[in-house]
Amino acid sequence: MCVEENQWVGTLTGLQSGLLLSPSPVNNQRLENYPYRKLIVPFGEVHSAETSVNHQTVTIQRISTNPFLHQYFVFIINDRLKILQSTDSPTGWLYLALLHAMTSHPLPDEYTEMTGMERAFQLLNSAGCWSDQPFDGLSLNILGQIGGISPNVDYYPKHITSMERIDWNIEGMPYSIQHFGYYLLAKRLIETSQRLNFMHSSSKFDEIPKIFDEKTTNESLLKKLYWDYRDSYNPLARLPAEIETDIHYHSEPYQSSLEHCPRVTNYNTVRLIDDLYKDGEVNLIDCSKQNWLPLSQWLNDDNRLKNVWIGLLKLTDRLKREALGTATDDIQSFEVLLDFLHYISDKCETKPFYLQMLKTALQMPDILSTSVDFPRFIRYSNIEEITFITERLNISSYYNSGEQRRAVAEIQNCFSRDSSYEDSNKLLNSNEVSRINQLLTNWQNNRKLRTFLELVQYRIFAVPIQQFNIKVLYYPQQFTVELSKDHYAIQLRLVNTPIDQELLSSAQQKFHYSNTDNFNNSSVSQKTIDDKNTFPQDIFTSAINEDNPVSEIANYFKNQLFQSWKKLLLDKQTLRENPSIEKITGVLNALRNESSKSWNELTKSITLSNEQLFETGLVLRITPPTLISLFQHKIANFNWTTDQHTLLGGILVNWTLEQQLERALHFAIHDKREDFKKEISNIPHINWIPSEHVPWLILELEMNMTIREIQIRVARHMMYPNEIINDNTVKSIVMQMNMGEGKTSVILPMLALSLSSSNSSLVRIIVLKSLFPTNYQSLKYKLGGLLNRRIFSFTCRRDMNFNYQQIQQVDNRLQQGLKNCDVILTSPEDILSFDLLTIDKCRRNEFDIGRSMLKIQRWLKTYARDVLDESDEILHVKYQLIYTVGGQTQVDAGAERWKTIQLILELVKKHAEEIAKRFSEEVCYKPTERKSAFPQLRLQSHHPFLSLCQKIANDWINTRNYRNEDKKIIVSFILETNSSADRLIDKFPPSDIQLFLIIRGLLCSEVLLVALKKRHRVNYGVNSNLSFNRLMAVPFRAKDVVADKTEFGHPDVALVLTHLSYYYSGLNNEQLTQCLNRLSEEETDPASIYDEWILYGKEDDIPTNIKQWKGVNIKDYQQRTCYLFPTLQYNILVINYFLNHFVFPREAKQFPHKLVASAWDLSSSARSKIITGFSGTNDTQLLLPVHIRQYDLPELEKTDAIVVNNLLQPENKSYQYFPVNASSNEILNLIVSYKERINVILDVGALFIDGTNRDIAIKWLDLSDKKMIDYTVYFDSDSIVVCDRQLHHHRFETSPASERLDRCVFYLDEIHTRGTDFKFPKGFRAAVTLGNGLTKDRFVQACMRMRKLGDGHSLTFWSSYEVHQQIIRLKRDRSLKNQDKNTDDFINLIDILRWVYENTIQSTWDGLHHWAAQSLSFQRKVAAFREIQWDDYEQLFSDAMMEELAKECLEPEIIELIHMYGACKVLQTVSEIHSARCQQTNYHLSTEICDPVLKRLQDYGGQKQRLSQLLDEEQQRELEQELEEERQLARPPPVEPCEPTLYEEIKRLCDINSKKMNLSQFPLVFQPLTFAFTDTTFYNDCQPNSWRQNLWVSTEFQRVILTKGESLNPFLRSPRWAVVYRNQHIIFISAYEANWLIHHLKSNKSSVTTLRLLLPRIKRIQSIFFNTPTLTIPPSIPPYNNTNIYCMPLEWLVQLFVFNGTLYFETINEQTAFCQCLGLCPKPRTQTEETAFEKGWIAVDGFVSRPKCRQHLRMNQVQFNSNPLKFVKHIIENRNNSHAAVTSHVGSIILNSLKLF
C-alpha cells in the first residue's frame, strides 16, 4: 500500500485526521477496485467547527490522558458497494458511525449517495454494532460521543411540562443533523449489552458515560421530539422498530391537569411581613418599566413572586399615576397579567392573596403618599433582622471588656442615627470595621423594607380586598397517542416499467440458474501423481507387531490411512488452460458494462414516477446497501416487481464475478501464479443457484470472495446428511475437511445463514474456548453487515448462579434470537455447565429457577441446531465437566496427607540424579543451582518409576520403627498391586495404616508417576488470575492456558502437583512475606524453624547477614528483596511451610458427590434436530459417542493422505533436536542461527515454557535481522498482537503488519496452533516443535497452519531431547524387528510420523477407558430424566420430580483412603473393566448404548491391561462456591473466674523453723500433681498412680474458674512457679501464691525451702531456670545458703518435662531419663534392643509394656505402666498450642520413635 496523492474520499467531508492508502502499482498497472483502498483514522474526541464554506471541519483531539491514545482504526473503502467498512466489530463500526454523523451535511455525500446521518443510522442499526456482551471502555467512549450529538432537551421550568427547551450543539454542526435519535439509540445499544452482563466473567465492567445519566437529559421529552420530527428524516435515519414500539408502549394519552387552573376566587388573608417577607433573603427586582410580555418570563426562578411583588406594586403605582383615573390599555394588560399569574399560582406554589392585594391597589385612588419612597431594589439578607443585635457583632476577645463596651455603644449609636461606624477611638481593625458597617447597612435596609411593607399592608387592608370574580373557562385538552399502524407513511407508486429484455434475460440466467465455465476452455483429466509418495508402510510398526497389546488400534489407523492413500492415488485432477490477462480483462470490462447498465435500468424502474420523493430524500436512498437490505428482507411499503428482483439478483451475481476476476488479475500482475491458478480455476456458482441462497450471494459480495464448489458440497452435506447404516438413518454426523479449506471462515457463516429459520431453527455454533474470541469477531464481521445477523455469545459457569429474573432474560433472548434468525456462539464448557447447573438448581431445591431452566432445555432440544467447529477436539473425552456437590470436608488424614507427600518428594529429590543417570533415555532431569531447591524431573515411562519406588520405599521404611517382618509386609503393601489393607488391620494402629495407604497411593497406585509425567505450565500449574482465588494447582489446557474454573478431581494428584508447581516456580515476594510474618508473630520458636530453612541449603549460598534469625529484619526492604527472597524463594522447606499454613488447610477439601457431563451430553440424541460438525482431522473416531458418526464426503476421504503426503515432501525433511533442558533463549538462538530463515514458530510441543508469549516474541524480534524483519506477531490470551521495533504493541487487524506479512515473524503457542489462520507469503518456513505425547491430530493441525504446504511453504522439525530419545528408540526397535543391520540414528519424516502415530495409538487406548466411563455417567442422567418428556410442552415439572431427578444424577466421590487405595488392584482389559462396572450399576442401562460401547472396547481395546481401580486422576471439575452468609453463632457464655485464696498452710511453707508439714493431711490445700488435670480430658489418660508421690499442686493452682459444667482444657494453668519444700517435695503453686511467698522467702537465710521458676524448653538453646542457683528464692549461693546446693534429681525433672510440655533436652542424660520414665526404647538401638524389638518386646512406637522385658532391657526408672504417648502428645499440644514438631527432641521420640541426641 502507498499514500494516495488525492486524499479526497467523497465522504466524511471535513475530516481533518486520516490517511488514505491505495494499492501500490506494479509495472505501472493498478486495478480499479482491488485490492480495496484503506483509510486510517486515529481515535480521539471528535469535534466539529463551522467554516466559511458552509460545511463543518471535523477534528480529532487526542488528549494525553486518554487511555486509548494510541488506538486507531482501519476502514476499507468498497467502491462497488459505495461504503466504508470496518473489520473490527463492534468498535470499528461504532467509530465509523460517529465519523459519518459528525461529518454529515443536509445533502447526500458524493461517494455514499446518502447523508452522513443516514449512513450513521444504517451502521448503528446493523447487527455489527449490537452486542450481548458488555462493551469495552473504548466502545463506551464512542457511544458517549454519539449520544452527545443529540441536543440536550428538557422542560422549563422542569416541574412544568408545558414548554420545551432545546440546547443545540454549537460546534459547527447544522441543527438539522443533530438527530434526536442518536442519544436514544446509543443508550439502547448500551442497555442491550448490559442486559446479560451476569453471563460474563469480568468482575468490573467499564463505566457507562455520564451523558446517559437520567439527570443530564429528559429522555421522555427526547422520545417525544424524535416522534414529532420522525417523518422529516429519511427512512434510513430512524430508530429500530423495537425502540419505536417501546416509545409507543410507554407513551400515555395527554390530558392537561385541572390543578393548573384554580376554580376558587376568594382566599384567606395573609400578612406580607408574616409570610412572604417574613425572613430569609430576597432580591427585589424593579419591574415597573418592564414589558409584561412574553408571559414565559414570569415563570423564571428569578421572577418569583417574592422578588417581583414590590416591583409589581411600583408598576401599579406608575400605571395609576400615568392614567390619571382612566382605564388605559396598559392597565388592562396589567390586569391580564394578574389573571395569568393567578391562573398558574397553584403550579408555581404561590398564594393568590398577594395578587388580590395588587388587584386592590390598582383600584385605590392613591396607593402611597408622595412622601413615601419605595425601598431600594437590591438584594436583602436576613430580612428578619431589623433591630440592633449585639451578638452579631462578634468583637474579638483580644480587646478588654471596657474597650468592647465602648465600641458596642458607639456602633449602636450609629445604628440609631442611620449612619456608618467611623471608629473614631481606633478600637477595632479595618476588617472588623468593614464587617460591622456591612451589618449596619443590612439592618438599616431591612428596617426600611419592613417599614414600607407595614405601611403598604395597612393602606391596602384599609379598603375592601378585590376578588377574582370571573372564573376562567377551562376545557382540558386530550390527545391520544397515534398507533404505528395508523401513522401515515409515504407509499411509493411503483409502475410496471418495461425493463431491457437483454439485461433481464442475462440477469435471469445468472440469478436463477447455476453457472457454467466463464471461459469455456478445453480441459483434460489426468492423474497428478508426480508429487505423491507411496504409502508410508514404515510408520506403523505397532500394526506389524502381533505381540503389541494395542495392535487393533494400530491396524485401525493403518487401514484408515491406507484407504485414504488409495483415494489419493486414484485421484484425477482436471487441468485447464489458463486464460490470458487480455481475455480476463475483456470479460471483466464486459461484466462491468453490463452491471452499470443493469443498475441504471433498475434505478430508473424504481424512481420512475417517484422522482421528487427520491430527490427530496423522503424515501429510501437507491444505493447498493439499501437495495441489498430490501432484497433479502420483506420491507413494507416497498413492493418489488419480479423483474426488478431478478435484475438486482443478476447485478449481485455480476458483481461477485467481477470481484473474482479482479482478484485473479491482481495475482497475475503480482506474478502470484499459484494463487492465480487457484482463483481462476474456481468456477463461481457452478453447483448452486444464487436465487435459492441469496444470503450466500451477499456473503460472497460483501466479503469479496467466491464460495468454492467443495465448500458448497460440504455445507450441503452438513445440512442434509443421508448416511444409512444398519438400515437406521444416522442423524448426527461429523466430517473431515482439510485445514485451510475455509471451514471456519466460509462454511460456518454459510451454515449459520441457511440453517436459521424464524419459526423452527436457531443455529448454535459450538467452538473451542480458546478460539471463541476470534470466531466471535469473524462471525460478527461476516454476518453483522449487509446480512444483519446478530451473534449471541452464550456463556455459562457455575459461579454465575442464575436467579429467576436472569433465567427469564436468557429465555427471552433465545426467543428473540429465534425470531430474528440470530446465531448463538458458545463453547462445549458453557453448554455442559448449563446442563449441570440446571440439575444443581433442582438439587438445591431452587425449584422455580430449576423449572425455568428445564423449560429452556426443552425449548433448545426442539429448536437448537448445533454445528461443531473442530469437532474432534470438542467431542474429545477430555471435555468432561464435573460439579462438586455437598459440603466441603477435609481430605482424609488431613495434614498427615500432605506432610507425607512432602516426605516422599524429599526422597524423590534424593534419588532423582541417580535415576536420571540410570535411565537417561526415559528421564528428563535438570539439577538445581541451589541445594535447597527441587530439581526438574519428568519421567517418560514406567520403567524408571519402578526403580524410584523401590528406593523410596526402602529409604522410608528404614526411618520407621518396625520389626523386619513387619517391614516386609508394609513394603509389600505399598509397592505391590495384589495386596490389600485387610492383612494390616489387626497388626498396626489406624494412624499407621493411614500412612501406609497414602504412600501406597503415591507409589503402587502411581499417583506420583502421573504427576511426574506431566509438564509444569503445560499440563498443570497455579492459576495466577486473582478472581479464581485458589492457590492449589489446576489443569492447564496448553502452555500457560488455564482450564477455567477447574481443578484436579483426585486429591493426591492435586496435592502432588501443587507441591511441584511451587517447587518449580518458587514463592513470590508476597507469599514469602506471609511466611516470614507468621514466623515472627505466631511461632514460639522462630529461630529454630529459620535455622532449619537455612541449614537445608548450602552454606556458601547463604548471605552472611541472614544466616541467623536474629540478623533478620523483615521490615528492611533491601534485606528482604536482595537477600531473603532470592535465598528462600525455591527453598523446599519454606515452600512446605507456606503450603502447610496458607494453602492446604483452606483448600485441600473433598466433596461427597459430583455431577458429571461430557461429550456424550453434547451429542445426545434426545433432540429434534441433528448435530453436525467438521474438523481438519479425524483421529478421534473411536472416541466419538455412539450416537454421532464420522461420515466424510467420498471426495474428501483422501484428506488424511493429502496431509501426510504434503508432510513427506523433501523440503520438509530437516530435523533438529535441542540439548537437554534447553531454555527458551537457547531454543530461539538455535532457530535464529539455522541455515535457512525461519519465519514462523509453531510451538505445538510447548517447549517455550520459561517465558510468556510476549517475552518470547520480543526476544525473537530482537534476535532477528533488522533489515529483514520489522514486526513480531503473537497471541496475548486469545487476541492477536503485533510488536514493532519500538516495542509498541497493537492489534494485528489494525496494524501495518497485517499488510506486510513478509516483514513479520510469527510465534504461535501450543493452543493457538489450531484454528488460527494467517495468509503466510509463499516461501515461508516454519519451525515445528515436538514435545512429549504429541498426537497426530495436534501435530497435523499445527503443521497445516502453513496452508501452502507442499506448494510454497515448508517445515523444519525441532524436538526436545527427551522426544529425540523416544524417536531414536522407536527407530531402533523397528530395525531390530526387521533385522535391519544398516540402521543409523539419522531421523527422517517417517521416523517423526511413526513417533506421532505411536502417541496417538496410546492416547486413543487411554481414552477408551474414560470414554466408556463417560457413557455410564451419561446413562445415569438418561435414567434420571426418564420421567421428562422433552417433546411434551404441556408437561409440568413438579418439585418432587425435580428433587428426584437431581438425586438420581448425583454420583459418589471416593473420599476415604481405605476405599481409594486399600483394595487389591487387578490388571484387566478395558472391556473387562467396563463389563464389571456395568454389572455394578444400580440404574437402568440402555442396550442401544451399552452394546456398541462394549463392542468397540472388545474390538479395539486389545489385550493391554490397566489397574481396574486406578482413578481418573485429572478429571476437571467446577467447584461449588462456599456461600458467604450471616450466621447467628451460639457462642459459649462467659465464665466466671475464681477469687484467689491464700491458705495458711501456704504461708507455713516459709517457716523453716517449724516442724515439717505432712502435705497429705491438708487435702484442701495440697493435692498430688495429677489433680491439676481434674475436669479435663487429660485426666483419664494421665495414669494418676504413675507419677512420683513427692510432686504436688496447690488446690489454688488447679482452681481457675467457678463456672461448672465447662471443660477445663482451655483453662489448664501453666506450671511456672514451684516450691521445693524442705528439699523433698515439689509443689506447683499459682502466681498469686507465689507473689506472697517471694517477699517472705527472701528473708530466709536457709535455702532448704526455695521458690523456683520452671520454664518448658521449647527452643534448642534455652534454660529452664529451675536448677539455676542464682535464680532461686532465696538464692542457693553464699551468703544466703550455708548448706549444699539442692539440685533436683533427673528422674524427678523429666516428669516435670512431661507436665510442662518441654520439647528439647539439654543433655543426652535428660533424653535417656525421659525415655526411661515413659517406658520407651526408641531408635537407634543396641543389638540387645534390636533383638527385643524383633521379638515384639518393643512396640512400633517404642513402648515396652511388660515388666520382664523392661527388666531385661535395664529400664529401671519406668513410671508408667500403660503407653503414655497419647497423653504426652495431647499435653504438649495444650501447653504449646501446636503439635510437637518432628524435628524437636521430644517430637521425634513420640512421633517417629527416634532419638536425635
UniProtKB/TrEMBL annotation:
Coiled coil: 1497-1524
InterPro entries the UniProt entry points to: DUF3638, DUF3645, OTU_Deubiquitinase, P-loop_NTPase
Catalytic EC class: hydrolase
Catalytic reaction list: Thiol-dependent hydrolysis of ester, thioester, amide, peptide and isopeptide bonds formed by the C-terminal Gly of ubiquitin (a 76-residue protein attached to proteins as an intracellular targeting signal)
EC code: 3.4.19.12
Pfam families cross-referenced by the UniProt entry: DUF3638, DUF3645
Record keyword Hydrolase present: yes
One GO-annotated biological process of the protein: proteolysis
Protein name: ubiquitinyl hydrolase 1
Organism: Adineta steineri
